[in-house]
Amino acid sequence: MNDTLNRSITMNLIQENLARAHMNARLEEARMSRRGHQLAAARRLSRKAERAAAQARLALARAL
């Protein structure tokens, strides 16, 4: 009886640890995905700023 109880508790702890590891892996994937989206957005904004600067230089050159 006691041996069966110990096995049951051990299996339960193993399952809890596995679930915890799985959850941590999913959280890390979500963090990495957010970082990727933030980097992509920053690149888009950078390109937009570069285009605006180029248009401003062109407008200034035309005005002169």
Describe the model.
By secondary structure, the chain is mainly α. It has one domain (1-64). The chain has one helix and no strands.
Short description:
97% of the residues lie in helices and 0% in strands.
H and E order? H
Helix/strand-derived category reads mainly alpha
Shape: rod-shaped
Report the uncertain regions: none
The overall strand count is 0
Domains counted in the coordinates: how many? Answer: 1
| Spatial separation of the terminal alpha carbons | 94 Å
Q: Please state the CA-atom Rg, rounded to the nearest Å.
A: 28 Å
Helix content: over 70%
Put simply, the count of helices is: 1
Strand content: under 5%
The biggest sheet amounts to: none
Mean residue pLDDT: 93
